[in-house]
Specification:
392 residues; alpha+beta; Butyryl-Coa Dehydrogenase, subunit A, domain 1; Butyryl-CoA Dehydrogenase, subunit A, domain 2; Butyryl-CoA Dehydrogenase, subunit A, domain 3; 12 helices; 8 strands
Length: 392
């Protein structure tokens, strides 16, 4: 059977892939401001991503996916983020869940295969649901208050999760919970969105990433099959995080915010070339002060590109060790700091126009600030680096 033009265009090794992604990004950019202003979810973007077969990028080939390498995933995320950062964040979370599941293969085999095939043939996205009102981010320690109770019919899951990115479109939630045993176990439980007791509380009203639909997830005695317990362990037996899984999170988020900063740079360059004050008689781009500032932005973005893609290339070539997770976190710390600074330079340069809602620079700035929130956060990264250097 011959491949469709779309499938050929989106095969991970195809040279046409990035051209297609660039076209999608341009289309997403045309609606990004509206979705940001309304806080509405860009469902149409995910229909386009499905049509382009880009929802299966990190799914194994044996289940119909593309099993793309790290470099390709970074490129796709970066380009989509240059069009609409919110769409890129939801997509990144979906990629991360599939990539992590493919590496560990800790899920029930039939369940895992079905989810993969659903994500290939339809719009079946998944993401983790971990943060809770009482606990906060689990990266800082502690046990979830979400409870999974084993019954004769399966697991009953009850709890309250926050910041569930992509909640309006997700087909499945990978819920972090503990069992109600005297000696509780902890792990993830797969919760389909269409089960009784699943509710989305539309609480998301954020400074940035406003179109991600990162609402609260409410679970009230949701009954799931036994095999939907994905990886349950005693608290003292929780496995150390896989270094390559850690690397995926930090590296792909770095690529996302590089895309946001690049979009801001592109708008700024166009603005400076078009803006010609009457007292100057030429465009702002002709002034050395503006040229120097744009040069600084270019240096920051170039450094980001080298950091992201050199590490991605190393991973793809198998040239990494068990420090790769911390190395990727270091890349995240440096590149997101650079991305924020790059946009701030543009804002400082042009003043009020940069903060006007009719221009996208203020949206890019609000979005890029969200890079500081994603785990691991900067203080944790620096703590890990310091302990590593001090051999503590």
């Amino acid at each position: 059977m011959s491949k469709s033009p779309v499938l050929e265009a989106t095969t991970a090794s195809s040279p046409n892939l990035l051209e297609l992604v660039e076209s999608l990004a341009a289309d997403f950019a045309s609606r990004a401001a509206l979705h940001d202003r309304e806080g509405s979810f860009p469902f149409e973007n995910f229909a386009a991503l499905h049509q382009a077969q880009l929802l299966s990028l990190t799914i194994p080939k044996e289940f119909g996916g593309q099993d793309a390498d790290y470099t390709t995933v970074c490129q796709v995320i970066e380009k989509i983020a240059s069009g609409d950062a919110s769409t890129a964040l939801v997509l990144t979370m979906h990629y991360l869940q599939h990539a992590g599941a493919a590496r560990t293969r800790s899920w029930h085999p039939a369940v895992y295969e079905r989810l993969c095939r659903e994500s290939v043939v339809g719009i079946a996205l998944l993401n983790a649901a971990r943060v809770e009102p009482e606990l906060g981010t689990p990266a800082r320690g502690g046990l979830p208050t979400t409870i999974a109770k084993q019954t004769d019919d399966g697991w009953l899951v009850t709890g309250h999760k926050q910041y569930t990115t992509g909640s309006p479109i997700l087909s499945y939630f990978v819920v972090w919970a503990r069992t109600n045993e005297q000696e509780p176990q902890v792990g993830s439980f797969l919760v389909p969105r269409d089960l009784p007791g699943v509710k989305i509380d539309e609480t998301w009203d954020h400074l940035g990433m406003r179109a991600t639909g990162s609402h609260d997830l409410i679970l009230e005695d949701v009954l799931i099959p036994r095999e939907y317990a994905l990886d349950i362990r005693p608290v003292q037996a929780i496995a150390a995080a896989d270094p390559l899984k850690l690397a995926s999170v930090s590296l792909w988020l770095s690529a996302l915010y590089q895309g946001v900063a690049t979009a801001a740079r592109d708008w700024l360059v166009e603005y400076l070339n078009e803006r010609s004050p009457t007292n100057l008689g030429a465009s702002l781009a002709t002034l050395p002060r503006f040229q120097t500032a744009v040069g600084e932005i270019e240096a920051l973005l170039y450094a980001n590109h080298r950091l992201i893609y050199s590490l991605a290339t190393d991973i793809d070539g198998g040239k990494y060790d068990n420090k790769v997770g911390l190395q990727a976190q270091t890349v995240k710390y440096l590149t997101t700091s650079n991305a924020i600074r790059a946009i701030e330079i543009g804002l400082e340069l042009i003043g009020n126009p940069g903060l006007s809602k009719k221009n996208p620079l203020e949206r890019h700035y609000r979005d890029v600030l969200c890079s500081r929130i994603h785990t691991p956060q900067n203080d944790a990264i620096c703590l890990f680096l310091g302990k590593s250097a001090l051999k503590i």
